Amino acid sequence: MTTLTKRVITKKPEVLAPAGTLEKLKTAIRYGADAVFIGGNAYGLRSRAGNFTYEEMAEGVAFAREYNAKVYVAANMVAHEGDTEGAGDFFRTLRDIGIDAVIVSDPALIEICAMEAEGLPIHLSTQASATNYETLNFWKSEGLERVVLAREVSMEEIKEIRQKTDVEIEAFIHGAMCISYSGRCTLSNHMADRDANRGGCTQSCRWKYGLFEMDEAAERTSLLGGDESGDIEEAFSMSAVDMAMIRYIPELVENGVDSLKIEGRMKSIHYVSTVANVYRQAIDAYCADPDNYVFNQEWEDELWKVAQRELSSGFYYGIPSEEEQLFGKPRKIPAYSFIGQVLDYDEETKIATIQQRNVFSQGDAIEFYGPAFTHFEQTIEEMWNEDDEPIDRAPNAMMTVKMRVLQPVRPFDMMRKQR
Amino acid sequence: MIELIATAESLGQAEKLLESVDTLYIGEDEFGLRLPVSFSRAEQKEMIGLVHDAGRKVTVAVNALLHNDRIQAVLPYLEFLAEAGADAVTVGDPGVIHLMAQHKIQLPYLYDAQTMVTSANQVNFWAKWGAVGAVLARELTKEELLQISRKAEVPVEVLVYGATCIHQSKRLLVQNYFNYVGEAASGQERTLFLSEPKKEDTHYSIYEDRNGTHIFATNDVSLAGQLDVLKEGGLLRWKLDGLFTKGDAFVQIAKQFNEAKKLLEADQWTMDAAGQLQKEIQQHHPVGRSLDEGFFVKNPEDIE
After folding, report:
1. What pLDDT does residue A48 have?
2. ipTM of the prediction
């Protein structure tokens, strides 16, 4: 007699989401992130992303604790002389605030953190381009808790790395990608006097370049060719499409990746909520019953609603070809705009109170979604302003609007419409 | 006391370079980055013998980012190099450092993670792990280099002549472009360049090899006019990179730097000598490739 026991995966990988602001932090966690990564006011790589003060960090940590979620701080700059001043205090303060780990790439900062903020776990940033298991073993011997792999590592390589190391592995699953090995690009430094490894990246890789041959007499011959139609000259570019690993969650889980990372501290709450929500669903579904797991196309469709570029699986299944770069005219991607967030809902009247985030009008086809992947579509019928006067349009940013909704909604549910 | 380090592209060129430089820098492209030529094991062995016969040293490039397959293959290579008597290797992947420690490979190494090596504290971190020197990033200003020189516990190497790599992608960016526009051309030619939008005169070298795509700064570096500053500041390891300067032209440039070194060590360096050196370099430098002093002359405050 055979006993059939359902296999369940109890050690689920973490969904790690970006959070450029406190609002994004809370949104990401409400929408299913197990952990978020944020930036401090120093030592990070996103000088233009919203960065957190210590007070905001403390509030973020308190909020995360309620959900049993973690908060990591990216301090992944590559320091020059003088940059590390005060870093010891910085790391100690983070530790005392209750930050769960720091993400660092510069060995000088790793050392300061290890020496001066004992007890604060350190994760090696993807900027350090860790691409093999011995590198992970090295960093483990240095006391690091986790290594974020380079985006160039393939699924097969992850499998082998898992077998040959026991340090935690974090891998990118969604978002924009550097076209270079992270950290090994100083295009911005040389073209714009902005240090890519100290928060100044100008995304020069996405510019349009000439391509030519130059002979020994310095004669130039352009090598630019035509676009798909053959009529228009196509500039040389190095712009990568984005990554989406939603179809490959089973392999990532089975290969023992501990943390699945979503890129984008600059992205909106619309983006963060949608992407965290989708991956939460897929991971929960797989881990609950891996043997009967079925991929749900709705997840991918959902990701396309917030996509900014086309999506690919990066280096996981081979070295990306021209298909995974942006050439020619930008192809049309179905884009939605984020138009409101639910503040309140009255079950008796079935009226929702909404905070406006973008213009909407009576007659608009809209979609509501919330944590746990709840979704429904409807057309806007009756609306009122905060003085309960009927309106047909909600033009003002952050204005409060009431509207009748077809299904119950909850605070922090989001409202979007097709552009 | 000044050490001149030069790449070599052949045994013949090496013989001539050895008249001027202290150390030759060679390797194979499975483990070393952006070398003028990838040598076979037999050639490397022969090269090491040749250099040692001349009483000079050989450093071998093992500075690539290694994936699993190559981290496995690198151990026998390191054993081969130790056996063949290589004087040092450059290393940029901590996995290699870990392997060398575990397997007690007797090969001094210089830390060389390219763009990432930007502070004395970082250099000293690797010194604790046994690095006997470090190759500094090219995005450092004079002020920064001098501070690093003062604080670093091991000697640091500075590029005084040659091209600066500013981008390495694992993707085949040129091949991908040619595929898109439907041209049957190769990205492996080392005569290809990019120009920046709205700056048509710029000429960033670009080529592909087994390590992916490499892009270089629009101007090659020559610190001919700054050698006294380097010497005063204790920056005494000078790299000459002949990636794009072939054959005898590179030998001539090395010879000029050696003359400069002699003058500096005899305290006979003058502005005129610096000007003369710059003129000689210009004369042998490939036509169409321009020279400047790179980040050396930038103000750290101007870089955001």
Report:
1. 53
2. 0.96
